[in-house]
Design goal:
4 copies of one chain form a homotetramer.
Chain A: E1 5-10, H1 17-26, E2 33-39, H2 45-61, E3 67-71, H3 74-78, E4 83-86, H4 92-105, H5 115-139, E5 144-147, H6 152-162, E6 168-171, H7 174-185, E7 196-202, E8 205-211, H8 219-226, H9 232-237, H10 249-255, E9 258-259, H11 264-267, H12 269-282, H13 286-301, H14 321-334, E10 338-345, E11 358-366, E12 369-372, H15 380-402, H16 405-414, H17 422-434, H18 443-450
Parallel strand pairs in A: 1-2, 1-4, 2-3, 4-5, 5-6
Antiparallel strand pairs in A: 6-10, 7-8, 7-11, 8-9, 10-11, 11-12
Helix pairs in contact in A: 1-2, 1-14, 4-5, 4-13, 4-17, 5-6, 5-15, 6-15, 15-16
Chain lengths: ~450, ~450, ~450, ~450
C-alpha cells in the first residue's frame, strides 16, 4: 500500500462525517491518505461547512497531513478518486419524515428501508447514484464505490446491474453490532474475535449462524440468551431505530438462524405497526426524532474547540456505519482479507436467489473486492420471504429507473408491509405527488395524478 | 380401453356427488365402468344414503349397468380400485365455519385455501390423505388418486412427496371457467376451443397467457376486456366464493398474464378482508351460506323422483370440479392427450420453484399421467409471491405431518394473509384448540395450550 | 388459415427439393400457398434450373396454381415471405468431402454434424444464416425461419441467440424414423400413432422414452427388440449415413432411454472411427458417395417427363427432412398443435442445460411456435455428455461468430470425437486453410497460418 | 485447543508415513497430540513395522512424548479417535501396475485417478472407505476423516454422500505446488503468501485464478510465464507423475484460468497417451517406477539411525500430500481459518454442478470444517468437461457401491480417456477379472465373465 489515496464522500455534510473521520484517523497506520473531499449540494452547504470545519480540526488534532476539501462541485471532487463513499440523502430528513408519516396516515408502515418509505427512498436515490456512476466512468474509472446510502441493497444492485459499476460494495452496520452481541452472549468480551459467523440474505433482511472455536454450532445457544426478554445483552445492543419487540422463541429456534433486527417488521408486523402509528400520533416518528438530534449535533459541531467525535452522535443511530466504511477502505487498500458482511454480487452464493443479483453476505475483503463465503440454500420458511423481498427489490429498481407507474403499483402490491388494495394505491399517489421535486423520472405520472 | 373400471369416491356423501355422476354419465362412451363406490364415515352416513340413492337413480335413468355401492368401509371400497377420487371434508362444514370465523374475530382473513383457514384445512386433511394412501399401497397399488379436496395443491404435494404416491393428480375448477370466459372475451362462443392457453403457478395461485389461431398473443386484449369493471363477461364467470373486486388494470397489464380469481386475496387484500369481516359480522361467511345451501340441496336430493343434477347445485360454488375429475379419469383411461390444468410434479416446468414440488400447470393427460407443457420462469413481480407461497406450503405440510407447533408458527408468520405478531399467535392457539378433534398430530401442543 | 402463403427456400437447387414439393403437395388441403421461391447462388444456378423446372412440373401435375419462382436474388425472394426454409450447403459437397477426408488423414472422425467436420460446417454456415436474418429483419419481419441446414442445433442456436430471430425452428429427420420403428417394434403398423414419445437432448444427440396406451412405459421392451443384432426392424430403419453397429445392450438398458443413431459416434466410437477410416481409404466417405448419387439424381431430374419424386432420392439419405419441414409449416399455419421433435429454446425444459440455449425436444407446434413438453433432468451418464456437447456447441458458435482462433482450438480440445494434442492442432490448421474461401471471419488467422 | 488428540492413520505402512510425521513434528506448537496409531493389514505388516519404527525414532528425536502405536486391529485404533487419515492402497502397488498396464495393452491410458485405472482404483477403494466409516460411526462418532487416498474426489464423495460422514475432508497436494510456482512466476519467493488464489473444480481437475495485492488479476501474466516452454519455474514445479507437455498457449489464455497438471490428460491427450504407451513398452509405467523407489525407501527406513525424512522420499512423487494433511488437522484443531484447497460439499459453490456433490475448492478451514469461497459458474469450455467428469464420477461411485456391470460399462463409455467400443468392453472385462480379489461387489459379474 504505497499509493497515496484520494477519498471522496458524497453527502459530506452529513452529521455522520465525524464518525467517518474518527474511523479514518483510527486506521491511520493502514491508510496512506493524501486528500479527502467532502461533497454536498447547495441545500447542504451550511451543514457541509460546519461539519467540514470540524473534520479539519479532527485531522489537525491527530497530527495528520491529510488535505480536507469541501466542495459543491462533485465532478472536481471525483477526478482521480480512489474511493468514493456515499452517505447522501435526497430530499434531506424532510423526505424521510414524509416517507414515515404518509404511510402512517393510511395505517401502514413507512420506514427508511422497508415498506412504502424504503420504496420511495429508492425511487429518489437510484437515479442519483446512476448519475454519480456516469461521472465516475469518466473521472475515476478505477475507483471503488462504497455505498452506505439506504436502502443499501437496492442502491448497490442498481449501481452494479444498471450502472455497470462492478467495483461497488454496499455496507451495513447491523452485523457489527450482532457480532459483538453474540460474543457477549457466549461469555466473551464483545471485542473478542473468537466466534465464526456466517451471515446471508439481503440488506436489512439477513440471518446468521455462529460456531465456536471447538467447531460446535452455537446458534441455538445464542438464541436462548438473546430471545430471553429479560436479557441485558439484547437491550444493550438493540439497533436504535427498531423497537425492542421480542421474536417468538419457538419460531426463531425452528428457523435455526439468528434474524437481524429488521426482521421484526416481518416476524412481528403487528407490534411494529402499532409502534409506528403511535409515534405518528405523537409526532415522534424516527425521522422527526433524528431531525431534532441532528440539529443539536450541528450546534455541537459549531464549537471551534470540538475536535473529536462527540458522545451524542451515538444516539443518532446508525452507529458503526462509517466505521464499517473505513474498515472496508483499509481492507481493500491493504488486501487485508478481513471478513466483513457486505452487499455484493451473488454469483450463486445464495442458490435460492438470481445469479446476478446483489446479496448481503460474509465476505473476505481483498484488494480486488469482496469474495463471499458460499452459503447455499435456506430452509423453506426463510427462503420464501427472502425470494419475495428480492423480487420486490427488482421491481422497485425497475420502477426507479424507468419511472413506470405500473411498476410502482407492482412494488406496492407485492411489498409485504403494504396491504394491497385501494388505500395502497391512494397512498402511492400521494407519495408520488409529495416527492415530486425528487422524482424527475415520474414527472408525467405525477402531473397526470395532480390533474385528476 | 377394454378393462372395466372400478371407481371409488372418498367423501361420497358430498353434495357434489350428483355432478360427479352427471360427468361420468356424459362420458359413458369413453368410460367402461363396472362399479362405483361411494365411501363416507359414520358422521356422513345419512348424507351418503340420500345422495347415494339419488346417484343410483341417475345411473338407472341413463340406462347404464354400473354398480353403485355405498359403504362406510373404506378398505373394502379401495380393493382393486382403478381410480380413487377424494372430495371429503374433515370436520364437515362446521370446521370450515370455524376456519372462517375465528380469523375474522382477530381481524384477519380465513378462507378455505388461503390464510389461516387454508392452513388448518391442510392440517386436518393431510394426515387423512396419507392414511388413504397407506391403504391404497396395500389394496390397489396401480390406482390413480384424483384429488380435488382443498387445499388441492398442498394435499397433492403431501400425497406425492410425503406419501410417495406418484399416480396422483390434483384438480382445480378455476381454469375451466377462465378458459370459457377468455373465449367469450375474444368473441368466440364459450365452448369453442380455439385459443391456446398456458397456465402456470400453484393451486389457486396461477396465471395464464393466451394466443389465438394466428399465433398472436391476446393476453393483453383479454385483460382489456375482463378488467373493465362493467364487463358482463367477467360478472358472469366470477368464481362463486370470491368477491368481484376489480384488479388494478395497470398492475395486471404490467404483469402480462391473467391472474386467477384467488389472486384478489393478494392483489386487493384490503377489499377482500373488508368483505370477509362484513360477512363475519352478518353471520354470512361463505361456509355459513354454503351450509344453508347444502341443507336445501339434500332436501331436494331426498325426492325419489329426482334423477338428474338439479339446477340449484350450481349455486353451491365449485362448479366444474366434478366435471374436471370425470374428464381426467376419461383422459387417463383412454390415453386421450387432452390438455388440462392440473397439480402435478414440477420437474423443472417452473424453473423458479423447487424441482420436486407440486405445481399447477397446463398438461397433456396421457394414460401414464400428466405431461406438463414447459413454462420456464416468471417476471419478478409474480416470481417473488409464487416462491413465497410455495415455501409457505412446504412449511404447512411439514407442520401437518409432524405436528410441530414451531412449524405451525412459522406458517402463520410467513403466510401473506396473516399479519404476524401477538394476535396471530393467539389466533393460532385458538384454532388449534377448536380443531382438537381433528388434529391428533398436535395433541400434545393442544393439551399444553389448554392447560395454560 | 385464410392468408395465402409465400414460402422461400434458400438453397433451392438442392437435390432434396422434390421431396419438399412432394411434402407441400401432399398437404395441399392444409396449405393455402400463393408462391414458392427457390433461391440459390451463382454456383448453384444449373442445379436450381434443373430441379426448379422439375418442381414446376410437380406442381402442375398436381393441378395446383402455386407460382414457383427461381432466383439468385435472395432479397427479392425474402420480401414479405411467410416461411423461409434453409437447405443450403456452403461450399457444396466438396466442402463436406474435405470435412470428412482431412480428419481421416489424421486418424480422426470427420462428420457433417459431429467431430471436426461438424465444427467446420458450423464455421461456414453460421455467418450465412446471420446474414439471411439481417435481410429478414428488413424484408419479412414476421416470417418463420425453418432451419434444416446442419449442424441444425448450432445453426438454430446462432439464429436465435446471436441473430435474435425468435421465430426460428430447427428440424431433424431422425425422430420420424425412430417413431415408426418403435411402433413396429411394439407390433403396430409403422404409421399407427399409438405410442406416446418424449424426446429430449440436442440435435443428433437426443434420447427418447416411450409409453403405450395403457400408460405402461415400454422403453425397455423396445430396447429389447431393437438392440437385438438380428432385428429386421432395426436394419430396415437405420439412418442411411450411420453404420449399423450395435450398442451395448447392458449400457442402453441401464440408461433407460433409447439413444438416437448418432449416439453410435459416442457410445461405439472405436467402431465408427474404423469404419470412417476404411471409407477414407477406399475413397468412399459419405460425402463422396452422396456426390455420386446426386449427380445421378440430377440426371433423372432433367427428364422433362419426370413430375414426381423419384424412388432413388430415398437412397440419398436424409429422408423425412423435407417432409418434416412441410409438416411444420402446415402446423404453424393452421395452429394444428401437432407434436414434433424440434430444436427450440430450452427455457428450463431440460434443467441440466442453460436456460437460454437451444434443445431438441418433443413439442406441440402452434401458430405461435413450438411449446415443448417439459423434460426435467437426465440420469448422470446421459447428463454429463449432454452438458459437454452443449458447452462445445457454445464454443463453436463463439468461434464461428468471432473468428477467434483460440476459440476454435477450445472447440477442438473439448470435442469428444477429437483426440486433443499436436495432431488436432495440425488438423485444425489444415482445415482452416482448406476452407479459406468460406471463412471470411478467420481471414487473419488463415493468412498467418499460410505464411508460416 | 486444550484437548489431547488421538490421530489414526489407515494405511500406516505407507512410504509416505515419514512425511506425515515430519509434518506433525513441524506443527508441534499447534498440535497437542496424545497418541498416533498407524494401522495396516496383514499384507502390509512388514512395511508397517519398518516405517513405524522409523516414525517412533522421528518422534523421539524431536523430544516429543507422543505415543506411537502400530496395529493390524483397525477397530482398536479407531476407538475415540479425533482424526482419521487414510493413505491406504487396496491391492498395493501391484494393483496400480495392473491399472496402468492393462489399458496400455489396449492402446489406452490407465492412470491412478484418470481413465480406466482411476475407475478401478475407485472400485477397489470405495467399499473399504465405507467400511471404515461404519466402524467410525460406532467407535469415534465425532472424528474427522481426512482422506488423501486417490481418487480423492470420488472417495470423498462416496464417504459423504453414500457413507453419510459429513466430517470428511478430501485433500490434494497439487494446489500447494502451483501456489508456490505462481509466486515465483510473479517474482516473489515461493514461500511468500502474497497472491490471492481461487481454485475450483474437482480433484485433479481444477483450475485457478490469481490476484495480486493491488487487486489486479494476474492470471494471464502467470500463464505467460508458465506456458513458456523454456520456463525454469515450470520445469522445477512439475508434478512428478505427469509428463511436462506444454499446453496450447492460445487455449489456456482463452480459458482465462490456470489448469492443473492433470489437465494434460484432457488438453493434450495424444501426447500423454503416447508417453504412457512408451512407458508400457519399456516396463516403466509410473507404478513400476514407484515400486522400485519404494523398495529403496524401505531399505533406507530400515536404518536404525535414520530419524528424519530422507531426501529420496521427495522423488516418490506426491510431495506435500502428508504436509497438507497435517496442516488440515492443525487448522481444524485450532480453528485457524487457514485457506486450503480441499474436496468438500458443493452446496452451490460451483453452480454448474449438482448441489450435493463434492468439489475441490479454496476453503477456509475452521474448527467445524471447510467453508468454501463461492466460485459461481465456469466459461463454456471448462464447464462442459467439468460437468462430464462429475457425471462420470457419479456413475463410477454407483458402480463401485452396487457392483453393477451395466454401470461399469456406462462409466467406461463416458470416460473421456477411454475410447468407447468393443476394445473398451474387453478391457473392462479383463480388468474386472484381474481385480477379482479386491472387488467382492462384482463377484457375480466376474464369475460370469470367467465362465465365458
Amino acid at each position: 500500500m504505497s499509493k497515496k489515496l484520494k477519498i471522496v464522500t458524497i453527502g459530506g455534510g452529513s452529521s455522520y462525517t465525524p464518525e467517518l473521520f474518527e474511523g479514518l484517523i483510527n486506521r491511520q497506520d493502514r491508510l496512506n491518505i493524501r486528500e479527502i473531499w467532502l461533497v454536498d449540494i447547495e441545500d447542504g452547504r451550511e451543514k457541509l461547512e460546519i461539519v467540514g470545519a470540524m473534520a479539519k480540526r479532527m485531522v489537525e488534532a491527530a497530527g495528520l497531513d491529510w488535505d480536507v476539501h469541501l466542495t459543491l462541485n462533485r465532478r472536481e471532487a471525483l477526478k482521480d478518486a480512489d474511493f468514493v463513499t456515499t452517505q447522501f440523502r435526497v430530499g434531506l430528513l424532510d423526505a424521510r419524515i414524509r416517507d414515515e408519516r404518509i404511510p402512517a396516515k393510511y395505517g401502514m408502515l413507512g420506514q427508511e428501508t422497508n415498506g412504502a418509505g424504503g420504496i420511495f427512498k429508492a425511487f429518489r436515490t437510484i437515479p442519483v447514484i446512476l448519475d454519480i456512476i456516469k461521472d465516475m466512468k469518466e473521472l475515476c474509472p478505477d475507483a471503488w464505490l462504497v455505498n452506505f446510502t439506504n436502502p443499501a441493497g437496492m442502491v448497490t444492485e442498481a449501481a452494479i446491474k444498471v450502472g455497470g459499476w462492478k467495483r461497488t460494495v454496499g455496507l451495513c452496520n447491523v452485523p457489527i453490532g450482532s457480532y459483538k452481541m453474540n460474543h457477549e452472549a457466549m461469555g466473551y468480551d464483545k471485542d473478542d474475535e473468537k466466534l465464526f459467523h456466517k451471515y446471508a440474505g439481503l440488506n436489512h433482511f439477513h440471518w446468521h449462524r455462529v460456531w465456536d472455536v471447538d467447531g460446535r454450532e452455537v446458534t441455538q445457544d445464542i438464541i436462548d440468551v438473546l430471545m430471553d426478554p429479560e436479557s441485558e445483552i439484547t437491550k444493550k445492543h438493540m439497533v436504535k431505530n427498531i423497537k425492542a419487540l421480542n421474536f417468538s422463541m419457538e419460531q426463531v429456534k425452528d428457523l435455526g438462524m439468528i434474524p437481524c433486527g429488521y426482521h421484526r417488521y416481518y416476524y412481528i408486523e403487528e407490534g411494529m405497526l402499532e409502534e409506528a402509528l403511535e409515534a405518528y400520533e405523537k409526532g415522534e416518528t424516527r425521522a422527526q426524532v433524528v431531525k431534532k438530534t441532528e440539529a443539536e449535533l450541528f450546534e455541537l459541531y459549531k464549537d471551534p474547540k470540538l475536535n473529536y467525535k462527540p458522545e451524542q452522535l451515538s444516539k443518532r443511530g446508525g452507529a458503526h456505519y462509517s466505521d464499517a466504511a473505513c474498515e472496508l477502505i483499509a481492507s481493500i487498500a491493504n488486501d487485508s482479507r478481513t471478513v466483513m458482511v457486505v452487499s455484493t454480487q451473488n454469483n450463486g452464493t445464495i442458490t435460492d436467489l438470481p445469479y446476478d443479483c446483489i446479496v448481503e453476505v460474509s465476505s473476505v475483503i481483498t484488494a480486488h473486492g469482496a469474495e463471499p463465503y458460499n452459503w447455499g440454500s435456506f430452509p423453506s420458511a426463510a427462503r420464501g420471504q427472502l425470494q419475495l423481498m428480492k423480487a420486490m427489490e427488482e421491481v422497485v429498481i425497475e420502477a426507479a429507473v424507468s419511472g413506470s407507474y405500473a411498476k410502482a403499483i407492482q412494488a406496492f402490491t407485492i411489498n409485504p408491509l403494504i396491504r394491497s388494495g385501494e388505500k395502497a394505491l391512494e397512498m402511492l399517489n400521494e407519495m408520488l405527488i409529495e416527492n415530486k421535486d425528487y422524482l424527475p423520472q415520474f414527472k408525467e405520472t405525477i402531473e397526470a395524478l395532480e390533474s385528476k
